[in-house]
UniProtKB/TrEMBL annotation:
<keyword id="KW-0472">Membrane</keyword>
<feature type="transmembrane region" description="Helical">
    <location>
        <begin position="193"/>
        <end position="214"/>
    </location>
</feature>
<keyword id="KW-1133">Transmembrane helix</keyword>
<dbReference type="InterPro" id="IPR050811">
    <property type="entry name" value="Phosphate_ABC_transporter"/>
</dbReference>
<dbReference type="Pfam" id="PF12849">
    <property type="entry name" value="PBP_like_2"/>
</dbReference>
<protein>
    <submittedName>
        <fullName>Phosphate transport system substrate-binding protein</fullName>
    </submittedName>
</protein>
<feature type="transmembrane region" description="Helical">
    <location>
        <begin position="12"/>
        <end position="32"/>
    </location>
</feature>
<dbReference type="InterPro" id="IPR024370">
    <property type="entry name" value="PBP_domain"/>
</dbReference>
<keyword id="KW-0812">Transmembrane</keyword>
<feature type="domain" description="PBP">
    <location>
        <begin position="221"/>
        <end position="484"/>
    </location>
</feature>
<keyword id="KW-0732">Signal</keyword>
Length: 514
């Protein structure tokens, strides 16, 4: 498959950049529900007639099909198909096979090809046995797609007459999953071709064209070099996924995500050398202004709303706590759950309280300290390990341990009776039945409940060493990639309401800078 012509078609400013896949309802709860489903997205990257400008250019340049005849009224569709969920889609998950249909009285497929598959072996599977091409319909084989696996279909059609955007329909049903097709993307001006010196093989059709009206994107989407991203462990998985996508597109880049905690990441960024600092970015749960102990650090962008959920051991019969009682627990004021008044006014069970907190390197800890404890200190550590009994202090004191990552919190809460901790809601949802999420005064960590007063949420900030404009090329490029609207559907699919949603609730929350 040729790359130059496709890159211009797909990435030029007049290419069809379809609006983001929207997962219904606008609430974090909906995001998380879809996140646990098998999710396949169709993004139509280009969908237009291929005309000639000036009109008499057709007398000089013709589009010739594989049967050596001219293709009348040609059109092209380029669609990206990607597993945007966290679960693999197996061959058995296809209730009805996946495909695309191009409605129209006379529309007919001339050639179809699969390109830019990730992993590359996927291309051979898709173009082998089971790939069907009908007059106006493509049917794909039931191929296994791991999370993040993707490919592009390039279809050349004839008899694409009329004005506006030709129709494209998706076919297929996934068991316990969803298939999304953006059918409301922005319309293109009619793409134009003029005769010239570029000859390229496109999906099996010989095309002699020079693309005009599609100049290269003035923004450099790729940069070479090395970059280290540190900071929040809560958001690390999301950025790791996006870093892999960037590196797959920009082969000369190397991005390492090393997230151990927001505060530690900010300290490392602030204390970096003048040579190393410009090759670093840091993620942090919440806003830390340059004067607050990090004079060399500046905000490079906002990425998403991060709601925090309180999780307990699944056997603990607690589902809802008043905010004041929850604060008592995390201050270490209670040793047994029977000292806690539940939301219904009854005492909790006769089970020792085991508080699983984050260490001082964590931005999550700062969020709890600020928004739940009113700036006060959380309970001091009483045991060296979350598995230990409380033998180092009075037996009537709370058992309090600290861990260094979101995953370690979930593991400890899932293991130990009476345990309670806090993690970002997407990671809590990923843990499934291993832990139990509880509500606070009847409110959960959703966008709707945040609007109603749910107290514990923040914004994921991206920080650079000094002004972003003065950092290394790869640092600027990847930062731009993260905050670009084109990545919002990826962030959303990972369970975080993205900041880049013009005029919607997440953008409003992000501007508050919690």
């Amino acid at each position: 498959m040729p790359s130059l012509a496709l890159d211009w078609l797909l990435d030029g400013p007049y290419g069809l950049l379809v609006a983001l896949v929207v997962i219904g309802g606008g609430t974090a709860l909906n995001y998380l529900r879809t996140r646990r489903e098998k999710m396949l997205s169709f993004r139509v990257r280009f969908n237009s007639r291929l005309g000639f400008d000036p009109p008499d250019a057709g007398n000089v340049v013709r589009l010739i099909g594989p049967d050596h005849t001219e293709i009348p009224d040609p059109g092209m569709v380029v669609a990206r198909i990607k597993n945007v969920g966290r679960s693999s889609i197996t061959e058995q998950d296809y209730v009805h096979r996946l495909g695309l249909t191009f409605p129209g009285t006379d529309r007919r497929l001339v050639t179809v090809d699969v390109t830019e598959a990730r992993p590359p072996d996927l291309q051979d599977l898709l173009t082998g046995e089971g790939f069907e091409v009908h007059d106006n319909r493509i049917v794909l084989p039931p191929v296994h797609l791991n999370p993040g696996s993707e490919f592009k279909l390039v279809a050349l059609l004839e008899h694409t007459s009329g004005t506006g955007k030709p129709a494209v329909q998706t076919n297929g049903i996934l068991r316990n999953g969803r298939i999304f097709l953006d059918s409301d993307g922005r319309r293109l001006r009619r793409s134009t071709l003029i005769g010239g010196g570029l000859t390229t093989l496109l999906a099996g059709a010989l095309v002699a064209v020079l693309l005009v009206g599609l100049p290269p994107d003035p923004r450099d989407d790729c940069a070479a070099g090395e970059l280290t991203v540190t900071g929040s462990s809560a958001f690390a998985d999301a950025v790791q996924s996006l870093a892999e996508q960037y590196m797959a597109k920009c082969r000369a880049s190397r991005i390492t995500v090393d997230a151990s905690g927001s505060i530690e990441g900010l300290n490392e960024l602030n204390d970096a050398s003048a040579e190393d600092g410009p090759r670093r970015l840091t993620l942090a749960d919440g806003r830390f202004d340059g004067g607050g102990g990090f004079p060399n650090v500046e905000i490079a962008g906002t990425l998403a709303v991060v709601p925090f959920s309180f999780v307990v051991h699944p056997a603990l019969p607690v589902t809802d706590l008043p905010r004041a009682e929850l604060a008592r627990v995390f201050r270490g004021d209670v040793a047994n759950w029977n000292q806690v008044t539940l939301a219904d006014g009854t005492p909790g069970p006769d089970v020792a309280v085991r508080v699983v907190g984050r260490d001082t390197r964590s931005g999550s800890r700062s969020v709890i300290q600020k928004l739940l404890l009113g700036g006060g200190n959380p309970a001091p550590i009483t045991v060296n390990s979350c598995a230990a009994a409380n033998t180092e202090t009075a037996v009537d004191a709370a058992i309090v341990c600290e861990v260094g990552s979101t995953g370690a919190v979930l593991d400890a809460v899932a293991r130990y009776e009476g345990a309670i901790g806090y993690v970002d809601m997407p990671n809590a949802a990923d843990a499934g039945a291993a832990v139990k999420q509880i509500t606070v005064d009847g409110l959960g960590a959703t966008l709707d409940d945040i609007d109603e007063g749910y107290p514990v949420w923040t914004v994921e900030y991206l920080y650079s060493y000094g002004p972003l404009a003065k950092t290394a090329d790869l640092t600027r490029s990847f930062a731009g990639f993260l905050v670009d609207a084109d990545q919002a559907d990826e962030i959303q699919a990972l369970g975080y309401p993205p900041c880049i949603q013009g005029g919607s609730v997440p953008q409003g929350l992000c501007s508050k800078g919690n």
